[in-house]
């Protein structure tokens, strides 16, 4: 391949997080333009994307100009499909009188020996229409010799034929054989004899011009010829683009043009090389040759760019799919609010494109209905929802009923209806419900509707739409998105599952309301809500589990116990108690299983507290016991207040990321950093409540040994707080001696331990070996 096929001129960044996959490019790009709904299949290789261009079969088979020539030759008595069958599938031996193919049958019935002879000769040449028939190049000389023989024969036949139709076809076969034999001089000679630049009238002339462009030595003329071929032949568009040199100044090529149409063709190809804003090129093409279908396609591409630049950040909160993650303002990628600001900047550019469309005389352009559609979507992009709906209403009246563009019109109409509502009063509009049902598998569209509702304060319907994106376990297509709560520390946090998003973002009140919504779906009098999403009982249970977990994060134990009790012991026995089964199932069935009693055991610490009470450990039992022990500890009449405060502190410690009961507050735990946007992020990373209750145990302690132990545990929690506030993560690196010394000096609990109990300090600070003895010395 002569040129590396990279169009975007931007280094596509494949960012992967330290732990693995991170979505980018086409994974995150939002688009509502469905190419199947628009008349640009002839440009399919150049549809907008974050990837490089590639040859598309749609382009190759789009126009069938050669087949149309043969149909005309046969007085339109045959079908184009029958011609395609012969040209694409038949071999030399298939061309015979008894063939069932109607195209061949017509030629034989007319005794058209000239046409039949040509087709057989062309089939003989097909094998040699490639650079290399043997990948090991063992028979290269033989192929060149045979190709030369066919080339000479084609030249003779072109010379002898009196019928201009076949004279030109044989000349073209000769041109192509000369090309594959690397004989550029012969191409020039043949082209000058049988073709002219100004006489490019049909597909054979255009294909011949392509080979002329290949052999042309003047790079300016070469660009002009490729631009002409690109405009005229869908089949040759990709290779023309490949060979076109965008480095040559456009002004030089324009000087070589002969008319305004050629100028427009040049601007078109230069425009396709521009991955950035292309409005100026569109204006130039319109000024020179407004009826160019390439102008309409450039507008289609510009809409695709704007969808990426505006909708990708607005809905997903990722930067646009073409943005280099590391270069050009790295900090912006770490702040979703700045990403949103960028989308607003690009809305201003959308307004400029809109003003251009409003200045255009639609009677002069091709596909005026598409231009009206583009106007409607640009109005939506610029948040002029009322005018967009007015334009859509006009389109709905004028578009034919079966026009596939209607599907996209409905998409933008629905987005207008959603986005144009008032905050706090947004709902799923009645007129949009049938459109949503029809497009329920169009995930980006459904997600965008949910995001619009979320932005407008309707968290119930937003969550319903998000939940509907998961159709089955076998459905691997995802919408990746972030939260407005993401900050510099959580810039890499993203979601593709509605449960994880609700887990991180929704308040208990919002979640409670959503559960009520889900439970009411089957009884709703609104058929949309009854039919759009089917809720499984297990899903309701999981959401109640999440609700109780959120209350635990808020330390609202009474509400948590109430919710957990609604689920019942059987639910928790199945979900959270695998460790009870002899220990063999611990972590094997689920990462969220309890493997230790959080009141008596500390992670990475030798056991030092005898278990006085044995009970099945799950969310409901831990919550119940925590309330019970807190009541005992807070009771002035309780003689073992220090003991119960210590057990309570152990439980809170274990519910942090450092403990064995982290699943009371989380549904997954990273082996690396557990910083998140959840409301208890500070507590989960620093065990502040544990530190507080170890302090309460200290207040009620009676012996120096137990007081020293309480201070030791407070100091452990304080170290976590110091690491968290300084940004040090021991999972990524070992602390330096200087760091540990600074932390030790800053830890007031360790300093209190040293000053108040100097004889106990070395025992406590050196390790955990003395914990058992000091705990026993409580009384």
UniProtKB/TrEMBL annotation:
Keywords annotated in UniProt: Signal
Signal sequence region: 1-18
Domain of life: Bacteria
Record's protein name: Tetratricopeptide repeat protein
């Amino acid at each position: 391949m002569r040129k590396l096929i990279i169009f975007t001129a931007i280094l596509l960044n494949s960012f992967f997080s330290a732990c693995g996959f991170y979505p980018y490019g086409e994974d995150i790009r939002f688009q509502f333009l469905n190419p199947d709904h628009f008349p640009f299949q002839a440009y399919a290789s150049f549809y907008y994307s974050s990837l490089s261009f590639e040859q598309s079969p749609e382009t190759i088979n789009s126009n069938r100009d050669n087949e149309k020539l043969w149909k005309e030759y046969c007085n339109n008595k045959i079908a184009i499909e029958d011609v395609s069958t012969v040209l694409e599938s038949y071999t030399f031996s298939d061309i015979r009188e008894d063939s069932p193919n109607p195209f061949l049958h017509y030629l034989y019935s007319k005794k058209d020996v000239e046409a039949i002879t040509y087709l057989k000769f062309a089939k003989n040449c097909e094998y040699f229409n490639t650079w290399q028939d043997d990948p090991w190049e063992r028979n290269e000389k033989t192929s060149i010799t045979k190709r030369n023989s066919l080339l000479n024969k084609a030249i003779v036949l072109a010379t002898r034929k009196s019928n201009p139709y076949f004279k030109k076809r044989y000349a073209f076969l000769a041109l192509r054989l000369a090309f594959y034999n690397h004989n550029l001089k012969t191409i020039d000679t043949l082209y000058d004899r049988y073709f002219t630049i100004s006489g490019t009238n049909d597909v054979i002339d255009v294909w011949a011009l392509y080979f002329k462009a290949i052999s042309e030595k003047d790079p300016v003329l070469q660009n002009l010829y490729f631009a002409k071929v690109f405009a005229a032949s869908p089949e040759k568009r990709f290779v023309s683009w490949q060979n076109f040199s965008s480095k040559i100044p456009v002004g030089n090529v324009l000087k070589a043009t002969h008319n305004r149409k050629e100028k427009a063709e040049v601007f078109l190809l230069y425009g396709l090389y521009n991955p950035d804003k292309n409005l100026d090129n569109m204006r130039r093409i319109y000024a020179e040759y407004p009826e160019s279908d390439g102008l309409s396609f450039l507008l289609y591409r510009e809409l695709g760019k704007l969808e990426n630049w505006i909708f990708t950040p607005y809905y997903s909160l990722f930067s646009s799919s073409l943005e280099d993650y590391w270069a050009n303002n790295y900090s912006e990628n770490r702040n979703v609010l700045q990403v949103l600001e960028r989308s607003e900047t690009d809305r201003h550019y959308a307004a400029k494109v809109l003003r251009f469309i409003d200045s255009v005389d639609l009677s002069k352009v091709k596909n005026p209905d598409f231009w009206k559609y583009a106007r409607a979507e640009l109005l939506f992009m610029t948040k002029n929802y009322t005018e967009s709906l007015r334009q859509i209403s006009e389109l709905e009246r004028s578009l034919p009923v079966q026009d596939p563009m209607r599907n996209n019109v409905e998409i933008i109409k629905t987005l207008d209806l959603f986005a144009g509502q008032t905050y706090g009063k947004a709902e799923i509009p009645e007129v949009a419900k049938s459109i949503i049902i029809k497009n329920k598998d169009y995930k980006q569209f459904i997600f965008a509707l949910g995001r619009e509702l979320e932005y407008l304060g309707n968290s119930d319907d937003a969550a319903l739409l998000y939940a509907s994106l998961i159709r089955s376990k076998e459905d691997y297509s995802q919408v990746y998105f972030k939260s407005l709560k993401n900050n510099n520390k959580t810039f890499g946090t993203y979601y593709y599952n509605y449960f994880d998003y609700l887990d991180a973002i929704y308040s208990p009140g919002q979640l409670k309301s959503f559960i009520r919504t889900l439970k009411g779906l089957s009884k709703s009098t609104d058929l949309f809500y009854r039919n759009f999403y089917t809720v499984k009982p297990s899903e309701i249970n999981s959401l109640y589990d999440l609700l109780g977990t959120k209350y635990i994060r808020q330390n609202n134990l009474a509400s948590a116990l109430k919710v957990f009790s609604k689920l019942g012991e059987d639910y928790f026995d199945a979900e959270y108690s695998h460790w009870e089964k002899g220990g063999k199932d611990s972590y094997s069935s689920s990462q969220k299983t309890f493997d230790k009693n959080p009141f008596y055991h500390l992670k990475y610490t030798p056991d030092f507290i005898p278990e006085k009470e044995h009970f099945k450990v799950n969310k409901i039992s831990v919550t119940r016991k925590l309330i019970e022990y807190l009541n005992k500890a807070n009771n002035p009449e309780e003689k073992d207040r220090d003991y119960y405060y210590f057990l309570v502190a152990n439980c809170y410690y274990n519910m942090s990321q450092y403990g064995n009961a982290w699943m009371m507050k989380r549904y997954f735990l990273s082996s690396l950093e557990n910083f998140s946007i959840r409301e208890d992020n500070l507590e989960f990373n620093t065990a502040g409540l544990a530190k507080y209750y170890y302090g309460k145990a200290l207040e009620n302690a009676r012996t120096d040994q137990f007081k020293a132990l309480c201070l030791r545990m407070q100091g452990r929690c304080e170290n976590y707080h110091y690491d968290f506030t300084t940004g040090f993560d021991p999972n990524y690196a070992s602390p330096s001696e200087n760091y540990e010394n600074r932390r030790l000096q800053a830890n007031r609990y360790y300093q209190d331990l040293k000053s108040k109990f100097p004889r106990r300090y070395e025992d406590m600070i050196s390790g955990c070996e003395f914990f058992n003895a000091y705990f026993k010395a409580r009384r």
